[in-house]
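INFO batch 0412 | record 1 of 1 | parsing
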Amino acid sequence: RMSRDSMYARHGGDLQGIANHFAYLKQLGVTAIWPTPIIENDMPKASYHGYAVTDCYKVDPRYGTNAEYVQFVQNSHKQGFKVIQDIVLNHWGSYHHLFLDKPAADWFHAFPTFTRSNYNAYPLNDPHASKRDYKLFNDGWFDTSMPDVNQGNPLVSTYLIQNFLWWVETTGLDGYRIDTYPYSEPKFLMAWGKAIQEEYPKLAMFGEAWEGTEAEQAFFAQNIFPPVNGFKSNLPGVLDFQICFGISDALNSGDLTKLYRSLQGDWMYVDATRNVPFLDNHDMSRFYSVIGEDFAKFKMGIAWLLTLRGTPQLYYGTEVLMKNFSDPDGKVREDFPGGWAG
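INFO prediction complete | emitting tokens
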């Protein structure tokens, strides 16, 4: 539903609305556009965020049609923009037609009672990890309305590979941002990445790996490490959370240690320039609030962002000093100033 009075409902906006503001984006210096997921999310609650897919082959009609998305990509290219599609491999929405009418019982991970992921990726690279922790992380549901897809089923694996090959071939998009990348089955991630890159070697791909240290983050990108538990990532790059944390620490405490280590750790990557540094995003407190609304610090943060290695990501509204803390997340997903009244 649409209601500007609720932070958990749709507030309007569609693909054409983005196209209507190409001039603003170009003036800002933008070279690529990353909308949050545009695939159908026909969920009864909080469907605005897009991360609970209900039809893998359909653009959400509130944004437009499949044909309009193809046209959006083409028009973006004409204006000099690349288009990054935000995708989820790990889970779908509980109203997905393949969950409501399962092809087989083992298409999704199931437990005797609802079991949530432990959100702890350490078992993937910990040689001493328990099988229980590993299973909870990989097989537990991300949320009550997001059933965990069983990528160990070869039919499910093939479905996901074909689906995301189809989106590139059909639309001509330029890259994938992969949500919750570490949560998927490791062997599937290797097979999926190999299939996509063999077919589209120039496609940009980077994943969300919200980890605590430089080594844990590098583990999920192409790196110089030997395989761990049979997994060696072939993902070209990741969202650089370590840079984000390092910049905030430097500006708030004057301690440059984290920022230094985040760059010193580049030796672990095959190519650290494939990473995507950022200051904030839709899951985190806004940068201007994090630095205490200090404009001098804001300028230093932006300068770091735009001059570091990698492809900088700017969250909408950061450029106009939008502020708030992610308690809850809806507060950092407010409407851009302007638009129509609620």
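INFO post-check: The chain has twelve helices and eight strands.
INFO record closed
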